[in-house]
Every structure is written in structure tokens, then in C-alpha cells.
Amino acid sequence: MTDYPDKNENKKILIVEDDPNLGYILQEALELQHYSVTRCENGEEGYQTFMESKFSLCLIDVMLPVKDGFTLAKEIRQIDLDIPIIFLTAKSLKADRIEGFKIGGDDYITKPFSMEELLLRIQAVVKRAGYQHSDDARQQFTLGDYVFDYEQSLLAFKDQNRKLTHKESELLRLLCLHGNQFLDRKVALRHIWEDDSFFSARSMDVYITKLRKYLKHDQRIEIKNFHGKGFKMIVHQ
Question: In DSSP terms, which residues pair with 157 in a beta bridge?
């Protein structure tokens, strides 16, 4: 089995698998490849664990107790748009595979499978996710008369450029990616601040106020606040 210690040692994998024997085998095999692994045995536990830490990839069994794998994946996708998700399943039905991909799964592997195949799929998905993140076509956004360049952290209005801080840039990008759709506060806090404490939430409110100020020159742009729940950036036509 190929060993990739340097490439894997900083990558954290969340396994959500209700079969303790298979879960242990998966954890042991991945740790031998120098991944850091956290294992859960039901969907609710998987969700709570995901909210408490930052992972590089999720391996999710479809048939889970308490909360099924598809529901868990949907909730994870609301929190993190980019994290790779691989479904594990005993089913080989085409409809299930299609459902998994519609939810936002990156790959789908049917039991029984060889560990070598799983490791190769994990490496491929993580590599692809890293490439897409670094060369994401959604790095530049047009907001009315503004142009936002995420890679350069620049917000341009006509002939004026404003350099954004890291958190300002991350928050504006997240609003842009949700484009006229509701952005849950917890999603933003988890994605940018990596926790949802009271102090982080207050900090995010300050950044929202700053972004409103930066975008005030085009009255078609509105960042709506849904008290205690989230935000929505609307660009009126």
C-alpha cells in the first residue's frame, strides 16, 4: 500500500459509520496513512462533531441511525460548500448514487470495497478539492457597480479600490457564493471564525456593518439581517 506521510499528516477525516468493526478498520487504515481520524456511529453525533472541528474530508455511510447519511450531508453542505464528501453504502442502486451526487457528494463507493480503492479515491477527491479551491472560477464577483476580487482581497468601485481584511474578504465571498439566498449565521461562523461563540458572533456583526458601509455607493446592493438567524445579500436589478 502506497504511503504518503508528508501529504496526509495535516488532513483530518471524519468517518460516520454505524458498523463499529468497519469503522475501526477504516480508522486504522487511514491512520496508517498518516491521516488524523475522528469516528462517529450515528448521523447526529457526526453533525455535532463536524460543528466542533475542521475537517479535510467526510466519509459518510448512507444508512445511519438517528439521522441518515444523506440528511447529514445536506446539513454539512449548508455549513461548508467545499469539503469533499464520499458516501459509503451497501446499496448499488443508480437512484441512490444520483441522490448522493445531487446532495453534493464528491464520490460514492459501494460495500464491500478494497481499502486500496478507498485510499485512492480519497487521495483523488482531496487533490481535486484542493485544486478547485486554489483555482476556483468563483474568485471574482460583480455586484452592481462593484467588482470583488477574492484572490486579491480587493473591492473595486469605478476607479476606487479598497483592500479588504482577510475576514472581510471571506465573509463577502460567502455572501456572494450564496447569491440572493439565505446565509445561516452558524455557517458563516463555522466557515470563517471556526466557532459560534458569543464573541465571534458579535465580531461577525461588526464585519457585516463594515461591508454594508463599503457597498453603500450602489443602493441596489442590500445585506439583510434576519435577527439571530443569518443574512442575505440581495443585488436588486
Answer: 146, 160
Helix spans in the chain (H):
5-8, 20-32, 43-52, 69-79, 94-103, 115-134, 166-178, 185-188, 198-214
For residue 19, the model assigns a pLDDT of 94
Which one, of 198, 173, 200, 178, lies nearest residue 189 by Cα?
A: 200
Of 216, 207, 164, nearest in space to 225 by CA: 207
Name the pLDDT band for 149 (thresholds 50, 70, 90).
very high
Provide the pLDDT for residue 134: 44
CATH of 137-235, one of 2.30.30.110, 1.10.10.10, 3.40.50.970, 1.10.10.60: 1.10.10.10
CATH number of 5-134: 3.40.50.2300
- Strands 146-149 and 140-143 come out as antiparallel
Nine cell digits for residue 30? 487511514
Sign of CA dihedral 186, 192, 195, 198: negative
Is 41's pLDDT higher than 60?
A: yes
pLDDT at residue 51 greater than cutoff 90: no
Grouping H, G, I as helix, E, B as strand and the rest as coil, residue 160 is strand
pLDDT given for residue 93 in this prediction: 67
